[in-house]
């Protein structure tokens, strides 16, 4: 399944990419979501080399799946999320690995300035590997992902002031 989404930030793309390529932003965002370091999330790897930035985070995610897909989605899932950004081109890639679930998820992303704000575009590919129920599982994942993305964007907007 293909899915496109966007987030708007009240700052330039220069400010937003500076935030996205800072390890502290990622950990502060998770803590603002109520997660505790070494209890609910772990930074597995983080590297910055010139304009290239990569962070890999493992975290626990509570799930409330509908009955039709509940046997494929645990009540709490462990997810490994890897974000790679190129600060020069303001592009990135996100790979999400939901452990123990028959899913593959990744997206490319791009930041651009628009009317005094930064528009971040996400082009997702979500593939469920479950015969007959793939569509239902993919739709649940997209709905859940959109809800979580909105929460994360709200927190990120509050953190923007530290990157201006």
Characterization of this structure:
With 164 residues, the protein is an alpha+beta fold. The chain has a single domain (2-157), classed as START domain (Alpha-D-Glucose-1,6-Bisphosphate, Chain A, domain 4), CATH 3.30.530. It has helices at 13-20, 23-32, 134-159, and strands spanning 2-9, 41-49, 52-62, 76-86, 91-98, 103-114, 117-128. A 7-stranded antiparallel β-sheet has the order 1-7-6-5-4-3-2. A hairpin with a 2-residue loop joins strand 6 and strand 7. The mean pLDDT is 95.
Supply the key terms.
164 residues; 3 helices; alpha+beta; seven-stranded antiparallel sheet
Outline the fold blueprint.
Layout: E1 2-9, H1 13-20, H2 23-32, E2 41-49, E3 52-62, E4 76-86, E5 91-98, E6 103-114, E7 117-128, H3 134-159
Antiparallel strand pairs: 1-7, 2-3, 3-4, 4-5, 5-6, 6-7
**Spatial strand sequence of the major β-sheet:** 1-7-6-5-4-3-2
Can you identify the CATH superfamily? START domain
User: Which percent range fits the helix content?
Assistant: 25-40%
Task: Give the H and E element order.
Answer: EHHEEEEEEH
Number of domains: 1
**Any low-confidence stretches, pLDDT <50, length ≥5?**
none
Percentage of β-strand residues: 35-45%
Overall geometry? globular
Q: Which oligomeric form is depicted?
A: single chain
Report the biggest beta sheet as strand number plus sense, adding barrel if it closes. 7 strands, antiparallel
Number of strands: 7
Mean pLDDT: 95
Number of helices: 3
**What would you report as the Rg, rounded to the nearest angstrom?**
16 Å
